Amino acid sequence: MLICIPDISGFTEFMSAADIEISSQVIPSLLNKVIYSNNLGFRVSEIEGDAILFYKTGDLPTFRELVEQCRLFYTKFYKQLRTLEILYKYEVQGINIPEVLGLKIILHYGEKISAVQIGKNIKLMGEDVIVAHRLLKNKVPYDEYILLSESVLDQYKEEEIEHNFGWGRLQEKDTSYKHIGDISYRYINLEPLAE
Q1: Regarding the domain delimited by 2-194, which CATH topology (the fold level of the hierarchy) does it fall under?
Q2: pLDDT tens digit string along 133-147?
Q3: Cα 156 to Cα 151: distance, rounded to the nearest angstrom
Q4: Which residue ranges make up each domain of the chain?
Q5: Model pTM greater than 0.90?
Q6: How far apart are CA 9 and CA 103, in angstroms?
Q7: Beta strands in the chain (DSSP E)
């Protein structure tokens, strides 16, 4: 199963500084923009305040399709961010919306996942769901990025994996997590796409 977590960075700072009327409009608007720009058939398992837990079973998209989907998530998110900036430009808390909020996207592939129906919702459970969430806490030196776990990259032949995307290059890193161990990943800065 492929897990994709688009996560709004700066969420806590924004929520603590913004008026509830503004934040209750801004965050759902941004999350909706990401959900409706889903072209790869990801299913939504949960919306977790500032993040969407997407999943996909069956055949994987090509590596290029996967990166293009993440790029689309980001560019649609930023277009909506600019629209909200204009909408709330006369509100005191609206002035800093683009400076505070951003988007990071985690991609992880795992076999230790089960999709359990609880009521009308599908809840993902298992070790790889935990790993995907832990990857949100990493050593990437950027606020906005795509992070691809080694388990995602292992699903593609090395010659399929593009290292240069026109706006930046994939870089490698690993992080050690308690109870999980070292996890290797590659990441690319998304910030140049916002310019």
Answers
A1: Alpha-Beta Plaits (3.30.70)
A2: 999 999 999 999 999
A3: 10
A4: 2-194
A5: yes
A6: 5
A7: 2-9, 43-47, 52-56, 102-109, 114-118, 121-125, 145-149, 171-177, 181-189
